[in-house]
Amino acid sequence: MSEPNLPTAGIAPQAWSLAGAGAETQTLSGGRAVAIVRNDSYRVRCEGLREQPPVSHRWMSKNGDEWRRHELAASVTQSQSGSVSDKQIVVAEAQSGNPLRFEALIASQVPRTPRELRAIRLGEGILESNCPWTLASLAIENLIGCHLDLMSSATESPANNVDSIAAGEVVFTSTELIANEWQKSGDPQTPRMALIVRLASELAPILTSICRNPRKVLRRVRQMQRLNRVREVDGGGLRWLARQPGSTIAERAGSKQECLAVVREEHLDTMENRVARDCMLRCLRACQKYLRENRQARTHARVGIVSKFRNQLTQMWRMTALAEVTPLTSVPEPNYVLQMDQRYSIVWHAYLQLVRQQQLEDDVWRWRQRLFSEHVQIAVIAVLQSLCCRDQSHGGDVIVRREQNAGTFFDPRTALGPWCLPNDEHSRIDFVRGDQLREHKLLPDDLGAFGPDLAVVIRHRKELQQSAYIWTTLDFGLATTGDPSSGQSWDAAVSHLGKSNSRLLLIEPQLVTAEIAADEPVGSIPARQPQLTAIQHGAYGRSLRVPLPMQSSFREIAEQVAWALDLEPSVPCE
Fold first, then answer.
1. Does 237 or 128 have the greater pLDDT score?
2. 255-260: long-range contacts (C-beta < 8 A, 24 or more apart)?
3. What are the E-state strand segments in 95-161?
């Protein structure tokens, strides 16, 4: 690859291109915006964001300069009518000298659907918009939920699985286990085990008990009381009495014989009841979202549990006095009742789980491109598991973090492979993530400059036999530069990297645009599912449009990965 004529730092419009990285101010249309800096003396940050842009690739140029690629966050702006734009100001701070500033307006981004559309209200969940951007946003929401539940199942139950080992903040999981869980998570007839499913059976009797008999406290208030009913008077009541005309208490009480006294009243507006109220609303939104996503499996037991819980919540909300309690504005510090009371402590722990899940979804949305990349990586792992001999291949362990890091859960120390090919005892398949390209000795030194999300390498003994480079993007083909067929950078990557023993794949989701009945809820899945489409670019490059969930097109994905590796799809070797 010829040396790019770039300054010390810049912003690039796509993950597979260096074009335009030297501009100080530019407008990008969709895609995955990245910041590129030369050598390690620069610290990159984005103004207005607390997260530091993660390093996705490193490579060494032919002049011996080291380059780094930092991925920039996407927009979290909400919209119902069209795409959104976001201004990114990247600052590259050197150890000495003035910092470099680069400004980019990233346009044609998928907006986030407003919360009132994401969760259907009872009787109001009809389709309000067939806008492609809204459908893309809802598809991303479903993808995020599926991936988060998959990672949660991989990290929360290692004690019940012999193939998983917990070690502090990470969990070691076998590739076979996570591949099997990935395939199960996309089955439309088997709804995933979401958080709301686990909470439904636990919270239903507790919330019913609280709504029927909420905890009340006595509050001291001042009210006008007849003299024969006065039991307590405070300083305010005495001052009021002193201001009244007359020389005796009876004269000062006036014709009504009333004075300002302290009375005790029961009231519900307590911290624990505010938490219970907010927990009910969050559960109701989670139920509605889960039922919308799993309309094709209405008869499944999990859907039945959530549907019953949703009906109970709706009925309780209409009848309980908790609806009049002051809403919470932030997560409070727990009081004694929330920590020690038998009923409210259960609600408090469930409330924290719901808040954490919403916070996780909000944080991951900004890094959705990286989450989709990880989702595709698990799909490729599942393909390799199906292509190779399971009795001879271990595939390594996936190190999964309990907390996401810029949209990803895989720990950087994860090293996958090798897998063994059927009927070829001397060939092995290695799985190399984008941030590990420099660690593999058989890959080109400048491969990181093109930024593939992962590389799959077939090696025969110590020689490179075949390699597949895979990119991902989450624009659904809606953005101008999100279409690889119109991007010169993708063609350049195919021209440079595509050789007889190297093939390239670009994977992006396909937008579901089939007609949906007017009485169907927002985000409903059409009866006719689209098929995976492959667009050929030269002899060694293909771009794939994959419908979501990807698991429904697993056989077609396996065929494309087998083509990239120059293999024949086959039944796994037992």
1. 237
2. 256/224, 256/226, 257/226, 257/227, 258/224, 258/225, 258/226, 258/227, 259/224, 259/225, 259/227, 259/230, 259/233, 260/222, 260/223, 260/224, 260/225, 260/233, 260/236
3. 100-109
Query: How many CA atoms does the CB half-sphere of 43 hold within 13 Å?
Result: 9
CA distance linking residue 117 with residue 129, whole number of Å = 10
Closest by CA position to 173, among listed 442, 478, 402: 402
- Token couple for 349: 């722990």
First to last CA, the chain: 43
**Quick one: pLDDT at residue 239?**
87
Contacts (Cβ under 8 Å, ≥6 apart) of 382? 179, 180, 182, 183, 554
Mean pLDDT of 561-567: 92
State the DSSP code for 389. B
Closest CA to 312 of 209, 159, 416: 209
Instruction: Give 48-59 pLDDT, tens digit per residue.
Output: 888 889 999 988
Burial class (CB in 10 A: 0-12, 13-18, 19+), 412: middle
Q: Which residues have a Cβ under 8 Å from the Cβ of 373 and sit 6 or more positions away?
A: 408, 434, 453, 454, 472
Residues in the chain: 574
Confidence label for 264 from pLDDT (cuts 50, 70 and 90):
confident
Give the 3-state secondary structure of residue 387. helix
Q: In this predicted model, what pLDDT tens digit does every residue of 502-541 receive, in sequence order?
A: 999 999 999 876 444 444 544 444 445 678 999 898 889 9
d(CA 504, CA 484): 12
Other Cβ atoms within 10 Å of 296 Cβ, number: 14
Distance CA 104, CA 53 (A): 15
Residue 388, number of CB atoms within 10 A of its CB? 24
Q: What is the tens place of the pLDDT at every residue in 336-372? A: 999 999 999 999 999 999 999 888 988 999 999 999 9
The pTM is what? 0.83
> How far is the C-alpha of 352 from the C-alpha of 337, rounded, in Å?
15
Q: ∠299-303-309 over CA atoms, to 5°?
A: 125
Q: How far apart are CA 61 and CA 74, in angstroms?
A: 28
Q: Which candidate, 320, 336, 354, places its Cα nearest to that of 203?
A: 354
Helix/strand number for the chain, H first, E second:
13, 21
Structural domains present in the chain? 9-109 (2.60.40), 195-214+270-365 (no CATH), 217-267 (no CATH)
More confident call, 471 vs 185: 471
